[in-house]
Design a protein that fits this description.
globular
Length: 233
């Protein structure tokens, strides 16, 4: 058995996604693949932050309800007040990042809401109104890398040197631009294969040297094969 009733929709906060999920008792939650994102998650009375992953995350709890807010890559650190690399491959209680009183108040607010997804989104929107703007370079990096540009091309396009690009990427995404580019490329490949392309054509159209290269990167970041991923609902 897997996840039951997963839903997601666009948030009012630039490029973000709100989602809900129920993992039935005895079920095994579907693995969460790296995507360059950070999530704020309500799970049965707790608010936690899921940092940017470099490998598939396998949820261990079943019989739980989840409500999540998935930030557009690179936009969460400004709101959370912590650089993304400190959250890499971690799940952290929000109380470890924000003061206890604030966390308790916000958790109770989501707990008591009839629309918990709406309440969680409101928490983010209110917090965002009180912090500084996200570095405009962030969206440029994501867009350029996701279009298949090389790291060198991205640095030149954004008029920054390689060291500055790497430093800003660590703080925004949790890893350097090369790793982010590979993660985004794997996600493009999975989407292309789900759309019906052969594995060879998927590799060719999404920037891999060949099908073997595609297979290695999928295995590294997803922990399984592309064929097994496509067999999942």
């Amino acid at each position: 058995m897997g996840d039951d009733g997963y839903r997601e929709w666009s948030s009012r906060y630039g490029g973000a996604t709100v989602w809900t999920k129920t993992v039935a008792p005895g079920a095994i939650g579907s693995p969460v693949l790296p995507d360059g994102c950070i999530d704020l998650i309500w799970a049965d009375g707790t608010l936690l932050v899921a940092g940017p992953d470099t490998k598939a995350h396998h949820p261990s709890a079943s019989g739980r309800d989840y409500v999540g807010f998935r930030f557009f890559p690179g936009t969460a650190p400004t709101l959370l007040g912590v650089p993304a690399h400190e959250l890499r491959d971690r799940r952290v209680d929000l109380a470890d990042l924000w003061d206890t009183a604030t966390t308790r108040r916000l958790t109770a607010r989501v707990d008591d809401a009839l629309d918990r997804a709406g309440a969680l989104e409101a928490v983010v929107l209110e917090r965002a109104s009180g912090v500084g703007p996200v570095d405009p370079l962030v969206r440029g990096v994501v867009g350029a890398l996701d279009s298949g540009r090389s790291v060198t091309e991205v640095a030149e396009m954004l008029s920054v040197d390689a060291r500055t690009l790497h430093r800003k990427s660590l703080a925004a995404f949790g890893y350097g631009p090369k790793t982010l580019a590979r993660i985004l490329r794997v996600r493009r490949a999975i989407a292309a294969a789900r759309g019906g392309l052969s594995f060879a054509d998927t590799a060719a159209t999404t920037g891999f040297a060949d099908q073997a290269h595609l297979a290695r990167d999928v295995r590294e970041f997803a922990g399984t094969t592309l064929r097994q991923l496509l067999s999942r609902p």
